[in-house]
Amino acid sequence: MSKAINIRNLSLYYGKAKALKEVTLDIEANKSTAFIGPSGCGKSTLLRCLNRLNDLIEGVKIEGEITISGTNIYDPSIDLTNLRRNVGMVFQKSNPFPLSIYENIAYGLKIAGIKDKSKLDHVVEKSLKGAALWDEVKDRLNESAYGLSGGQQQRLCIARAIAVEPTILLMDEPCSALDPIATAKVEELIKELKKDYTIVIVTHNMQQASRVSDYTAFMFLGELIEFDETKTIFMNPSIQQTNDYISGRFG
Amino acid sequence: MTELEERIDNIRHALVNMASMVETNINNSLKCLTERNKSLSDEIFTQELEVNKLDNEIDTQGIETLALFQPVSEDLRYVVMAMKINKDLERIGDHAVGITRKAVELLEFPTVIEYVELPKMAFSASKMVSDSIKSFISGNKQLAIDVCERDREIDKSYIKISEEIISLMKNDSSIIDGAKFLLLILKDIERIGDLATNIAEDSYYIQTGTIIRHGNLI
Fold first, then answer.
1. Is B4 in the A-facing interface, judged by CB distances under 8 Å?
2. Which of A19, B106, B189, B205 stands 20 to 30 A from A94 (CA)?
């Protein structure tokens, strides 16, 4: 199995507080990896390190290395726009732009300089199909994205992320604001998407982690406690702390 | 204690209760046989109804726990294996009843063999049941493996005693009607050993997450 992401001795400080402690982890390509752990364990912080979103926070200091496709993404020469195009992000709350459905998808491409209408039409259709949304919106592409349901808006955000052809998709609790039906659709979508993308998902929902991920990383107080195949983590973890957390005994 | 832990504890108590009833029934059924006394049979049949009731209760508790709490890891193994152990205990209870019915039938016939080897085998099978349950309750992995290994002795005794009975039947055809019941009882005891082995294997799996069924002993 090839590794899409190599994290080596990664530590992150918010001022003096050490939020990530020497995390070392390899993430498989074209697999879905879940980060789980109680609130404040550092799972979202670790996820946001993967496309350098923490850079935007004042007072953050990062040590260690994250390598994607052989390149250390914390190298000063890295183009952040390119990095974030390659490593897309879907947030907890859907955040469509105040534009039409079509324009939401085409936005990133236009920013990248693509103006050819047929090319844009093709990518919009392909991305919406990839996010399992095309059939529901194909007749109202020019309507406002705000008219979509919460679940549809979240899939629109996924379509927007994949429109710029990333290799990695980061998802920070993508279903926490969705109802069970919309959640099931997004979960099905994750299974489809991993054929083409490497998925890293942060979730508080243990059942969701067990359903959608191939690998699971359990974190606690900024440390990576255990990382293994999801079925091992949920059937027979090696570390008692993992067992106690997934069994609901703390956290 | 979380509600999940409480539910698991309730399942454990129900299984211990059931195991105690089943062990009593095995021992009483053997008394019926060896003492040629049917006075305990009604008590055995009444107890069997309680065992069957507990079987349904434990299944219901297990399914509810899986549906409502989605246990994982050791809790998941515990609930699923408890439901399997429940089934094995219920079958052991059926064999105890089977021994009793045949022991009562045997009263119509003269004694076929001296009860020396057969009670020893029956006692070993009964001990396997109590030890398998002990390993389940205490999480004693070594005891579980020990129970599995003892089943080989039960199988050897089964072959030895059944050959002895068949040989007697060949020599004296007048004992066939009675001896056939004895052979069936022997099979009941051998099956009790098998089912106790299943319980021990499931107990080992709960503790370790490793399957040792079908002779894959570690």
1. yes
2. A19
**Residue contact A247–B74, C-beta within 8 A:** yes
Residue B215 lies in a domain: no
Question: Residues in chain B, how many?
Answer: 218
Structural domain range at position B131 = 3-208
Q: Which residues in chain A are contacts of B71 at CB distance < 8 A?
A: 247
Give A229→chain B minimum CA distance, Å: 13
DSSP letters, B54-116, are HHHHHHHHHHHHHHHH---HHHHHHHHHHHHHHHHHHHHHHHHHHHHHHHHHHTTS---S-SS
| Inter-chain touch B2–A248, beta carbons under 8 Å | yes
pLDDT tens for the 251 residues of chain A, in order:
578 999 999 999 999 999 999 999 999 999 999 999 999 999 999 999 999 999 889 999 999 999 999 999 999 999 999 999 999 999 999 999 999 999 999 999 998 899 999 999 999 999 999 999 999 999 999 999 999 999 999 999 999 999 999 999 999 999 988 888 889 989 999 999 999 999 999 999 999 999 999 999 999 999 999 999 999 999 999 999 999 999 988 76
Interface contact B39, partner A, CB < 8 A: no
Positive or negative CA dihedral for A13, A18, A21, A25?
negative
In angstroms, the CA A21 to CA A19 distance is 7
Asked whether the beta carbons of B121 and B161 are under 8 A apart, the reply is yes
Place of tokens 């009833």: B21
Domain membership flag for residue B217: no
Number of domains in chain B: 1
Closest to A6 measured CA to CA, from A91, A88, A70: A70
Rounded to whole angstroms, how far apart are CA atoms B181 and A212?
56
A-B contacts (CB, under 8 Å): 31
CB contact B167 to A (< 8 Å): no
Q: What is the pLDDT of residues B34-92, one digit of tens each?
A: 999 899 999 999 999 999 999 999 999 999 999 989 999 999 999 999 999 999 999 99
Give the CATH number, domain containing residue B52: 1.20.58.220
Q: Is there a contact between A210 and B72 if contact means CB atoms under 8 Å apart?
A: yes
Domains of chain A as residue ranges with CATH: 3-246 (3.40.50.300)
The tokens for A34 are 């879940």
